[in-house]
Amino acid sequence: MKRMQKESMLKVGLVLMMAVSLIIGGCSSNKGTAANSPSGKESYKIGAVIDVSGNSSSLGIPERDTLLMMAEKINASGGINGHPLELVIMDNKSDETEAVLATKTLVEKGVLSILGASSSGPSMAMLKTAQSEKIPMVSMAAASTIVEPAAERQWVFKTAQSDIVMIHKIMEYLKKNNLTKIAFMYMNNSYGDNGKNAITAAVKDSGISIVAQEKFDAADKDMTPQLTKVKASGAQAVVVWAIPPSASILTKNYKDLGLTIPLIHSHGVGNQSFIDLAQGAADGVILPIGKLTVASQVPENDPQKKILDSYIADYSKKYNTQPNSFGGYAYDALNLVVNAIEKAGADRAKIRDELEKTKGLTGISGVFNMSAQDHNGLKEDSAVMVQIKNGKWQLLN
Amino acid sequence: MRIKKYSGLLIALLLLAIPLIAQSNYVYGLFIVVGLYTIIVQGLGILMGYAGQVSFGHAAFFGLGGYTAAILTTRFSWSPLPALLAAVFLPAVIAAVIGRQTLKLRELYLALATLGFGILVSIVFAEGGELTGGPSGISGIPHFQIGSLSFDSDGSFFLLIWLLVVMLMIGIKNLIHSRTGRALCAIRESEYAAENAGIDCSRLKLQAFIFSALLAGMAGGLYAFYVSFISPSPFSFHASVQFVLMAVIGGLGTFWGPLIGAMVVVLLSEVLKEVIPLIIPNAGGEYQIIIYGMILVILMIYQPQGLSSLRNRISLRGLK
Predict the structure, then answer these.
(1) C-alpha closest to that of B206 among B180, B227, B232, B229
(2) What residue spans define the domains of chain A?
(3) Which domain holds residue B75?
(4) If contacts are CB pairs under 8 Å, which of residues 87-126 in chain B contact chain A?
(5) Quick one: fold of A44-162+307-378?
(6) Distance between CA atoms of A373 and A375, rounded to whole angstroms?
(7) What is the tens place of the pLDDT at every residue in B162-184?
(8) What's the CATH class of domain A164-296+383-395?
(9) What is the ipTM of this complex?
(10) Is B25 in the A-facing interface, judged by CB distances under 8 Å?
């Protein structure tokens, strides 16, 4: 008897739970009005969702460090139009669900804009919240689908060059050197996949043909089988879309097999660890890259020269290490947002409009020229071709 | 005694009062995630707690549901409701096919077989080319809607999820006190004894397996509609372990266990995110993960029966 009573109590409880939840539904229809209120006169809040831990932490950590450094600098020089900048950084642990929750937290905290995420997956997962909450979001990841189609991404911007920019740079190089038959190799993850899609689209009607296409896993320890096929294909150059360590292993295998045709990598290998892991085999490798890596060789008349030098000086002074392009993406993201807030004040919709109107803003990754159709705003002039010589990056002309 | 009688009701009310008071999309979002995991862990709880089978492959069913819903709505322009039904149905069918073979295995061997299945499925997601979008995943999944009723806000989706959770919990409550439920309990206590008592153990275990896959598929479909984007990464082996962890933390073979497990695992990590920076300034996510892991280990050492047994212990002590 007692047990039955308890059971029926439970049932009543559950039914009540349902009733209560229905009531919430009625109330929740007018939600979201309070979220738009600005954060008050005293400080401007900007949120960041960054892959500080987890798989993409190598991207996230320099980004976080850059943001912290910049916030300090902005506040030391009087803030944004006199308002101090309050930076709220959340770690999404390189996880998509966590990124969504972190975005919602930041919206609740009343941030004016959200920077992030570091990698493409979490950025894609955050999109919907940014769109539905009407909050400007500036991603630091590469995938072009983050800002395309533009009609469904009004609130989303990004600072890293899309793969297509880098591919165009490579195509320019191939055409200049009369290399018409290429082999394409890519790592089997979202980075390699995007590269493959971009190059497949780019070679159409370009006079350049892909004679061999091979893929490998991020964890593979030997790419000799794929390279053997490439060797037999009669390609005049090999384009590889991968990041270390697999990119380094491939480069080593390439040399071991005695391949002498040009080896062109993507900007994904644009860090010292690629050269170190390739153990000397990286010499001769050609790649497109942002100007940050070769800042000292960039000519004085380049519009980015000044900002590159000052970022490198500040970063290396504070953290005792050289900054990399990921930190650069964060630099640009915050710079874009601060620039927009200076013009728009504490209003999310106006900040979005100003972000879209950004013209000629010089950053680390390039000169940003946004438009309603282009929420990245970087063109081929934002990248340069470099060659690795004696373990050092050498600017190609 | 009174407290114990009402404790279920109290917990339930307290739980739903939080989003009601907060009225924030973040809290809704948090409870939606908790609700989704609860659905999966409910199924896993039946499988592990009653049928006594461990599965390290439930992220695969979760993913199959998600991908089914995503592919049907984006590639074949199905409307969301039939797509969700398919997301429930397909994992169940696959579970029926593989369950027939793998459930002959016991304990560790079954865990290994399901683990292999999970890895296999995540490779299929990443290698599915145009269909699954490869490692880049599928974006642009529409809102969930039934007829003209659209669940496009966090608040409405929260209601949908928790309505399902409540219905599911009532269903499971009835199931456990039915003939089937008693048979499942018998299997848990001793498979041989149950067999001797005339219970068709392999059939019941298969049913429990299919049921749990079905729930994971449903959660997956709902996840896809909620986030509107899926990629292979949330359905990795790590997620499978997470689900088993939730089931164990909450308490196997208990009514409240799955709910408590999902809630503790999700909320703990969110609370740590807020608390740790207060204690250790400038601490990154690494600290959160370490402390989170330590708390879970401590929980398992001192509360091996799961958190839902804590309630009994406290109230029994109060009685004496």
Answers:
(1) B180
(2) 44-162+307-378, 164-296+383-395
(3) 2-319
(4) 126
(5) Rossmann fold (3.40.50)
(6) 6
(7) 989 989 988 998 898 898 888 98
(8) alpha beta
(9) 0.78
(10) yes
